[in-house]
Amino acid sequence: MSQSHAPHDPHCIFCKIVQGQIPSTRVLETEHAVALLDIHPVNPGHVLIVTRDHHAHLADVPDSLAAHAASLLPRLCRAIRAATGADGLNVIVNNGRAAGQTIDHVHWHIIPRFDDDSVNWPWPQGQYVGDELAQLQARIATELESDAVGEEG
Ligand code: 5GP
Ligand code: ZN
């Protein structure tokens, strides 16, 4: 996993956590990521997968690190579901303030959900009008074509 910038930000709370400078309650550790209990859980058993290296957003993460973090999800989901008795799980990555990100160090939320919980979900959803759907498909496809695949992140 190549690293083209400083792996840690001295002002970042999650960098301090993965380095052990701030305590955390860990459930799984690998060479590249730490899974720990969120200190303010949406529901009990709410876990965060935090990369050991500092990357603010998912868009900044090297493909191999994103793949590694995602590879931990099925096992963590099974363990959290079994340990909490959850009826379901939400897996979410918030990117940017507009999306609710408060700590600019990439992390995956795994949130246990219960049939009768009071969590405000689902989000309201809209619909496309006219050729908006096709236009967005074309714009995203163009962006993907110009974006190199690999470890540049
Ligand atoms: P975000 O809003 O950035 O997607 O999520 C940040 C999460 O980190 C929040 O759910 C918040 O409760 C959690 N959090 C903030 N500070 C700490 C901390 O010091 N320790 C732990 N374990 N979680 C934290
Ligand atoms: Zn950080």
Pick out its properties.
153 residues; alpha+beta; HIT family, subunit A; 5-stranded antiparallel β-sheet; 4 helices; binds guanosine-5'-monophosphate; binds zinc ion
Shape: globular
* Cα separation of the termini: 11 Å
Number of domain modules: 1
For the largest beta-sheet, the strand count, sense and barrel status come to:
5 strands, antiparallel
Provide the CATH topology. HIT family, subunit A
Computed Rg: 17 Å
Specify the CATH architecture. 2-Layer Sandwich
Bound molecules: guanosine-5'-monophosphate, zinc ion
Average pLDDT, all residues: 94
Q: Structural class, judged by helices and strands?
A: alpha+beta
Instruction: Quickly name the level 1 CATH class.
Output: Alpha Beta
What is the H level of CATH, i.e. the homologous superfamily?
Answer: HIT-like
